[in-house]
Amino acid sequence: MDPYLYLDRDSIVHRLDPRTKITLMLASFVLGLLFMHPAWSLLALGVVLIHGAISRSLSNLKRIWFILFMLSTMGTVLWALFSKGATPFIGPIKLEAFLFGLGSAIRIDTFIIAGMIFLSTTRNEEMVLGMVRMGVPYRLCFAFSTALRLVPTITSTAYTISQAQRSRGLDLDSGNAIQRFRKNIPLVVPTFLSTIRSTNVFAMALDAKGFGARPKRTSYLRIGLHAADFVFLVIMVILLAAGIALWAMHFGRIPGLVKF
Amino acid sequence: MELAIDIHDLSYRYRGQKRQALQGINLQVQRGDFIVVMGPSEAGKSTLSECLNGLVPHFFRGKFRGQVIVLGRNTREHSVAEMAEHVGLVFQDFESQLFSTNVSLEVAFGPENFAVPWEEIDVRVKRTLALVGLTGMENRTPASLSGGQKQKLAIASVLAMEPSILCMDEPTTDLDPISKLGIFAIADELRRNQEMTLIIVEHETEEALKAQRIVLMKEGTILRDGPATEVLREVDLMEEIGVQPLQVPLFFKRCGARDLPLTVEDGVEAFQRRGWRIDEAAVEALRRQDAQRAQTYGDVLIKVQDLTHQYPGRVDALRGVDLEIRRGEFLAVVGQNGSGKTTLVKHFNGLLEPTGGAVLVDGQDTREQGVYKLGQRVAYVFQNPDHQIFSQTVYDEVAFSPRIRNLPEAEVKERVKEALEAVGLVGMEQEDPFSLTKGGRERVAVASVLSARPDIIILDEPTTGLDYAEQRSMMELVSRLNQQGHTIIFVTHSMWVVAEYAHRVVVMKDGHVLLQGLTREVFAEEEKLRQTFLQPPQIVSLSNQLGHTLLSVPEMVQCTRMEG
Q1: Does A70 lie at the interface with B, CB-CB under 8 angstroms?
Q2: Which of A63, A84, B516, B562 stands 20 to 30 A from B311 (CA)?
């Protein structure tokens, strides 16, 4: 089981400078935020999906579809229930509220997918190097990337531990909510302790490999802005400018909606 | 010439511990020396390694006395990062020291920190990966490598910093026997070509033959420090302190010889020169015993039929395995790193389901039974006891399995008592399992599956991370469980454990069964074993070269005739 989202593929997006990829991700967030109406947010989602297709990273959707599905269903229902509008739709839900719920769900999915594309196309080390070149201190960048790295490490430890406990008869799927919660103790305690122990070795290994020995370090990974970066950045600026212009012209809003 | 390492009166006690981790250590190491540090658990070997690059006293808190001078630098006055340029340290826990997203970046990390120019890093990455045999894996994620490959990567990532002193703390625990020797060969080559000073902490004695000097430690002190060829002949002392002695000199010592050969070749030569011979009748008696034992097994418990397993998106981990395991067997599954050993045995308790073929336990398909149901009959002890211990007392940990199956508390109590008796932990019921040694925690893990009263017990690498004495007592325990009627299946890299304890051996290679048979038959096929990176223990090789397969030093002594 490979716990990383990163896909080692040779797409044009993979070859972009990490600074470009970071900027593209941030721009996707802005684009996703602009419009409330689902038809318009769908448009933003479409742009992100095209970016994903070019980067050949949409296969990772298989790994996160459940999260996307749950968040959008729950999101649609909750926002629809708690917002108000004028036009009757289904029962207590008004049409405007429903549209807002749906639009918000699409927005959340857009953010997550943009993040997924970034992580699928950018190595941890690239991200660090990109942030360093953008002026963020190295130690801070490394801490950030370590936090990201910890997630898959914990996942794989937890997986081994759950196999060990299932072998001993732990059955996580039966019982009521409280019983199920209690059943997680045999998983949580060893995972927690193993993580602390390995984090300690990790810290020692960092020291032993000369982390912070010189004020400046070199990088084996080489990055640089090339023609493709400028093409992507120009397209991004155009899309973003168009989006903001349309937003300023009041497109993509839901008239009559009262948010909670 | 300036010494590489100069240690004076070093004592160290970790904060919060009563015991001295190191006490009165004096050690001088010349540049270009190759030293192996041996000793039982808690001897202070790891602490000594961590003194060399300053992790002790800078990283750990504790009471430090004395002086450690490495290449003219007092470790107290230099930071770990500064020392790291000169002293490379490979840790025992190799998983946790890998943190990059691909193999070449992992190797580049150290040189990057020392601001080595790109071109030079590139040269070093290629060279060190070639040296450890990982060329072609540059773009793999470390997480996708096998245990042995990860260990090699951890070594490469330190070598790339080109330290003058390289210290490796048990660098070969997860490697198959031939890869183990490979690491020692690499180390030796580095020392010769680049005048690197080498310090290897190890408890496998056969590898230590390559060293110039051996330092024997116990309870924080140095017991012996001398040429390898001298220390390795002190077989009684080694056995006494819980370090495995070399089998060839041990055999000659047991036969009353004065000058002790160390290698198999020298052993054969000495054996013949002395006019000793192997008693055919005695060997025949051993063979008969093997055959008789095989007659006592019961009906077929596990039947593997044309089993194939494929992990998503990868090549077949198992292809076309056929196997039968009978009640009462004591079976070892061996093979090179990544040959499919663990994948195979995880099918027996339903943790993995076949992607092709079938596994029947008691005549019923494992797919129909599931882990929960199978778990009552087939117990699985994982490699790392820390992956399953969670309770605050030994009692609760062992009681987990019967309690989760809703047995009455009286029955639970009965079973815990029985399980703790079996593993020798009676009286420890109220102890915190985390306060025990690795060997103790391993016992708790075994007891915690015994309390389910399983027929079959699967153990994944039951001796890894234990010292010789602990390994012996662990295997004695497993042996007793077998005599009490449990069917035992264990996965291991440790060939002497297989030779001395297993009744039957299955040798895996690239996902299929290469060889299976009684232990004696399998070890007779030395050439075939080598093809799959396995090497019989010294004594087995010695006896093979003398025309018969004997599995342990006592067997060899028993079958040797010394008179005319």
Answers
A1: no
A2: B516
